[in-house]
Amino acid sequence: MSLSPSGTKFAYVAPQGSGGEALYVVDLAGDPNPKRILGNSDQSTDLAGCTWVTDGRLICTVYLVTEGSGVLLGFTRLVVINADGTGLQSLTRSSSSRALSLNQYGGGVLAYEIAGKPGKILMQRAISEETSLNTRIAEDEGGLSVEELDTETLRTRRIEQPQSGVIDYIADDSGTLRVRTLLRTGNAGNMGTYQTHQYRAIGSDKWLPLARGEIALQSQSGFEPMAVDSTSNRVLGFDDKNGRRALFAISLDGSLTRQELLARSDVDVDGLLRFGRRGRVIGVSYATEKRQVEYTDTALAKLSGGLGAALPGSAQIGFAGASADEGKLLVVASSDIDPGMTYLFDKKSGKLEELLPIRTGLNDRTMGEMKPMTYKAGDGTNIPAYLTLPPGKASPRGLPAIVMPHGGPSSRDEWGFDWLVQFFAARGYAVLQPNYRGSSGYGEAWFGKNGFQAWQTAIGDVNDAGQWLRSQGVAADKLAIVGWSYGGYAALQSQVLDPSLFKAVVAIAPVTDLETLRQDARYYTSFSLYDKFIGKGPHVAAGSPARHADRFMAPVMLIHGTKDQNVAVRHSRLMNERLKDAGKQVTYIEFDGLRHSLDDSAARTKMLTDVDAFLNAALKR
């Protein structure tokens, strides 16, 4: 969603029918009915989001997947469209050579305003090195360039030449380039493991050393720049402190003076809140039992507190956009039992006006409360988790129950609305979501070697969640496990560790063989990161559920999309084949053309309906 610079127009992307997306525009000063100005029904393409650049024009990001020689490649492209649906044009630069440009990154907006240059925005674009055969305008060097774009004429002026190895730029809140990140390639064109950050002093074109950091597949150590504040002339970013991420500021005046802004001893500080068309920093966040925000903007801190107290329930307040003068704000209020309502707040009048519910189909539906809790693992470690019970239920005793491990594995569950959890709660299940060891957000020690290399610890914690539910009165024959991505892997691997615990297994887009996962990455530049993340040793075979189909006792349902870039569809196909060969009970559903998240209304409806029927049969409900 996006609010126009004047605050008089509202745009949002929403599902279109049973599949695809559409861009809608609402005239807040006139006709309140949303007008559809752009639609997409291609399953391999997503209209990912749109932002106003002027009151009459929006820039949208389109994501598409293509397949060639068995390799899936994702591409982003930028397009511009007028508020009335006319003037659709591509902003992604075309190659001057006849060969197809393989730039997967179609560009991004670094600044929607440039001080002293009204009507101009700052963009970065990926440029491919091109052949000069039969042309005089070929690019002789590839890399990331930066250009000024005139939002009226769409003419551009390059201000930073493409340079190999540069992967990102950061502009300050005045629209001036201040920081860039370089990532050198290693052997055979694979990504290296170290990033170098550089900065520019005010008024200088020279890039100077700032910091260095090591990257892994799903984690990072060292300084990670996030934003530059022009007023204080400092870059803000995350770095390590005592095994956890913390927020620091580094002066860009040549001294590189470093200041700790916020650190915690229990969880990572991992969220930086940026606001308005200039992307100014207004606060920092971290997740304990619930995500907490510490505002640096006192006015917004007061407003957030006031709105949170005034709106019903225990709403979390988020600022999703603003007019150019920040006189009108987009506010989203949501909670565990409320998927969210979008409001327009007028600072001058103090009026709060409802604009759009996030999920209209759930209006006036009673949801199950998501409660933070802990349970003990087999070694006595307290595992943080969330328990959601069906509305009106006080405990899981006597209920059918589901353990739902999150994906990643380097992720974590947080308090808030979860459509999958609420579906199962509405069907009468208690749902327990463990933040097992291997999850992110709790520091380096909790993350450990990650949930693949240390799968016995992670899956042990997941299975102990099932044991805890049984100790609370859930019948042994009414306990299931459901997971997506790594969560699907955990659901399958739980059978390898303890085949008798869960009586039904649902694995959506799961990893099923660690060596296959490694080989899937061989054709991509990120192979070295995957190779290091998976590691080598006996855990690879022992931690691959497809190699242990003979151990399975529970019926299994597998679900996968054929254009899944995160986990190739062959993982589910392999697991299905191995389970059938072992004489096990397995149901396999495949969605043609869909990616990892199965972002399609019709597909998700079928998935939920079929999963519900499968669990009812397996648990004899």
Question: Can you give a write-up of this model?
Answer:
The protein is built from 10 helices and 36 strands. The chain is an alpha+beta fold and 621 residues long. The chain has a domain of 211 residues: Rossmann fold (3-Layer(aba) Sandwich), CATH 3.40.50.1820. It has an 8-stranded mixed sheet, sandwiched between helices. A 5-stranded antiparallel sheet has the order 13-14-15-16-17. It has a 4-stranded antiparallel sheet with strand order 1-2-3-4, with no helix packed on it. Helix 4 packs across helix 5 and helix 6 packs antiparallel against helix 7. The longest helix is centred in the C-terminal third of the chain and has 18 residues. The chain is globular and about 70 Å long.
Shape type: globular
Percent range of helical residues: 10-25%
Q: What name does the CATH topology of the domain at 370-512 and 551-618 carry?
A: Rossmann fold
Number of strands: 36
CATH C-level category of the domain at 370-512 and 551-618:
Alpha Beta
Q: Mean pLDDT score, rounded?
A: 93
Strand order of the largest sheet: 29-30-32-31-33-34-35-36
* Helix count, DSSP H or I runs of 4 or more residues: 10
Please identify, by name, the CATH architecture of the domain at 370-512 and 551-618. Answer: 3-Layer(aba) Sandwich
Detail the poorly predicted runs. 96-101, 135-139
Name the CATH superfamily assignment of the domain at 370-512 and 551-618: Alpha/Beta hydrolase fold, catalytic domain
How many angstroms does the end-to-end distance come to? 41 Å
Secondary-structure content class? alpha+beta
Largest sheet: 8 strands, mixed
C-alpha Rg (nearest Å): 25 Å
Strand content: 35-45%
